[in-house]
Write a structure and sequence with these properties.
Blueprint (H helix, E strand, L loop, with lengths): L1 H17 L2 H4 L9 H14 L6 E9 L2 E8 L6 E2 L3 E16 L2 E3 L2 E4 L2 E3 L2 E3 L2 E5 L4 E4 L5 E18 L1
Antiparallel strand pairs: 1-2, 2-11, 3-7, 4-9, 4-10, 4-11, 5-8, 6-7
Length: 159
Amino acid sequence: MIAANGVKAAALALFAASVPAMAQTADPTRFATGPDVTAQVAAMAKAMKPGQGFAWQPPVRDGKTVAALEYWKAPGRPAVHPAEAEYAIVIAGKGTLLSGGTLVAPRPVKPELTEGDRIVGGTTRSLAPGDVLLIPAGVPHGFGITGDRLVLLGMKLPR
């Protein structure tokens, strides 16, 4: 039995040495199941205080890379992300996307975000679950709410 175990151990060591180092490391993939996301959306709704119009939480992240839930109960300020595109999927609720045009009275809030008072000359689109949007870096945009909420799952993509 000891000899068999010794042979087995030697065979395993030989196999491990032949597998590339990358395959031996832990899988760096971040993952959230559909039920995890649904539960997180419900928890966000419950945690929002009266009058709070927006909440943000990432179900998955890896350093600066974040896939985040945006829960909107009221429209926010129109914005521009100068160096990042915004990619999102509508997962619940209904709303509108106003994009393009010109951001009026732009004010830098942080390096990756400029907000304004309104957008002039943009295009308005209706949003519903399953819709996918990609807003290029530097394009003014804002979300409206046409139901009780608008929930997006999205991320920022460097230019």
